[in-house]
Amino acid sequence: MKKNTEDRFDVIVIGAGVVGCSIARELSRFKVKVAVLEKESDVGWGSSCRNSGVIHAGFNNKPGTLMAKYCVEGNQKFHSIAQELDVPFKKTGKLVVAKKNNEITGLKKLKRQGELNGVKNLEIIGEQEIKKLEPNVRGVAALLSPETAITSPYLYTIALAENALKNGVRFYLNTEVENIKKKTSGEFFLKTQNKQFIADYLINSTGVYCDEIARMAGIDCYRIYPCRGEYYVLDKNASSLMNHLIYPVPHIEEGGLGIHLTPTVDGNVLIGPSNEYIDINKRNDYAVTMEVLFKLCKEAQEFLPAISPRYFIRNYAGIRSKQTPPSQGGYKDYVIEESEEAPNMISLIGIESPGLTAAYPIAKKVVSMIDQKEKLTPNPHFNPYRKGILRFEEQDDETKKELVEENSDYGEVICRCEQVTKKEILEAIDNPLGARSLISIKYRSRAMMGRCQGGYCQTRILELLKEKYNYNWNDFLLRGSGSYMLTGNRSNGEPGI
Amino acid sequence: MINKDVVIIGGGAAGLAAAVACREKGIEDILIIERESNLGGILKQCIHDGFGLIKFQHSYTGPEYAQKYIDQVQEHGIEFLLDSMVIDITSQKVLTVVNKSGLKKYRAKSIILAMGCRERTRGAIGIPGTRPAGIYTAGVAQNLINIHNYMIGKEVVILGSGDIGLIMARRLMLEGAIVKMVLELLPYGSGLPRNFNQCLADYDIPLHLNHTVIDIKGQKRIEAITMAKVDSKGKVIESTCQEISCDTLLLSVGLIPENELSKMAGIQLDPLTGGALVDEYGQTTINGIFTCGNVLQVHDIVDNVSLEAEHIANGVERYLSSLLKPKNSIKIEIGPGLRYVLPQHIQYLDDTVFSFRVKKPGNKKQIIFRNDNRIIKKKSFIRVNPAEMIRIKLTSSELSDIKHLKVELN
Q1: What is the pTM of this model?
Q2: Of A205, A371, A431, B324, which has fewest CB within 10 angstroms of its CB?
Q3: Interatomic CA distance for residues B250 and B165, integer angstroms
Q4: pLDDT beyond 60 at A4
Q5: B-chain residues within 8 Å CB-CB of A411?
Q6: Interface residue B175 vs chain A (CB under 8 A)
Q7: Per-domain residue ranges for chain B?
């Protein structure tokens, strides 16, 4: 490939979601100059942090589709990737529960489909066995999938990005692509608000915005229908109510898997997501609605009557990047292609669920498409390992003792609910990507994620930011530029402590 | 393992008063464990006055009130740890404490739980809408303004009429912000009557009862809320929806006793109070573990916290001297009209202070303590209000030969 100047890259990946970051990491295995451009202030702030965190087994997707193939492959590979990247991973297993006898055919269909896709160890179990596995869950039969697992979708995305960064990929946050021009030389010319970029290859991994970005490059054949899913987050006290992921029998025409209950790797439980197509112009409308929140609670109680609003600690929404309009529903297979209108631009279209599971195989596919044309040279310095922030709370007393002796910052618990220490928060603040919004610190450290939602630790984290970076009142941001937390210093007070 | 006679978890109003009272009863070996860098708890950020009217017949600020107890703790030479977090507690009264100097285990003969409470959040009450910056619980806002000298907003809507919300309405006005309104879901205010007068009426801040927030707008910073009236069942009346622009939403929607450690120890909680099930000495379902203050029940007046803490010190002292011998366990029955009654049961039949709250406001009411048909005590009130905790003392002679005890509101 050609010699590069500062803003000139062999490959530019647009969008730092889990797919974009996976592609960046896979590319960094080769001697390629790569940049990732992300409009938000951190990686993974789109659908990648707004899903159920499930590593699907692969029985929900039609045999022969990329969705099915990549899901099964992604599931099988995930354990070793999670180990390389020090990302939480738990093989909890999943139960698709039939509430009535007439849903059992649906279970059998799913099992058959899964087996065709290559999913292992699927089993249909009866009411008695459900009771044994899940005493609180109601159902007449269930499909048990032991291969289904959970991870932390945002920590996975962050880990992929950090590892890619370490292996030479450049990340440009707060960098929204405004315009794409294909020059006669064949290179792409990208305009962003503060900077211009040149690239030989362009990867469009922009999730719910993929059709807009494609259109900028003159590709007009894609159309995305944003479909919102809302969630409730439950207190860790609810985790004792269930052991597996609990799903209803899906109705394929809905284009979602139905409102389900998912344990998280941190010990919370999620209820959701709902399935509501929203206006095409509101792709960033992550609002939750009263109607849906009410519905979530009601449907969760049908499986698990013990669920009650007293467990609720937060709600959120994600948006599916669907290719099928509301009138049609269901799924359309992933599109991963280089189109005639823009050679050397690879479009990833409609990467909805199981996108988190499939991210790795998708990335491998994208890299192989470039490799076929360019014959990439391996990067001899590629290091697949990345260390996450050590969680004090998860250590035994002896280790905790040693940690505090080594570094007294481990002795200061800043977030009470999640038992996050000053050391962990300082590491989160000082992250390699330089993302310093409160949400960035929250995703990395878990501080503010507990039942008091930052009531105790939020002000302490602001103090730490001030201590470390000498922040003024206007530097504290919740979620990137414009999300200012404070409006000034108090009239006659010394600014901050 | 370090042995202690009494370990007090929390160095706020309850913990400090309990420590002083225990020492004054002759208990030598006391340790207070405080997670923050200073003693005083939430009082540190309550710079308004009105504290101490019952205890000291004088109106102090929060820090002044706390300082009176901190001074006594220091005069008595009571040991305390700062910046120290209890991360584990067992039913055998073994505590694991972490701080900068390390991780240590303590075995206590007796424990006093005085961890206080936390604020109910937006997520807990499920307010729909986006999740932008500018949504604070009243206590966090109070901390940012009074302790850190920051301003949190310019145009504020307050949801919930709890006392901290009302206090903060005034505080924000004094700092030059505009408080547009206070919305309260219930048909009556949740705070103390004096706070409605001194914090809202005096500043012309409108209070809208039977109203709530049904939507939040704004991507980065909050831009507006949608308020709506609710009917008598709490259901939103669609035709009353109205968008109100604001850059800040303050929540004062209730306090929750912080009983995570209590649960860890295996202590049984009362769903009505969110605090532990206790006897007349604030002793929990584990012998020797006592509790007082906002972790037991959310108080409206700090003076009552101090009084409660002082009272349970009697029980701690007697427990340590093995003098706490149950006579007859009587479960207290709660009559209609009352939200809860503390203690939930009595077993020593000593002098007992009962504290409780009514379900809704009322005029010319009577509180009656009854053993089957026999009235043991009767007290009349011109007005009762859920915001105001009622405390009534029954003497050991009044309790001497009872078999049942029911508290009623008539």
Answers
A1: 0.96
A2: A371
A3: 7
A4: no
A5: 83, 98-103
A6: yes
A7: 1-119+254-324, 121-253, 326-410
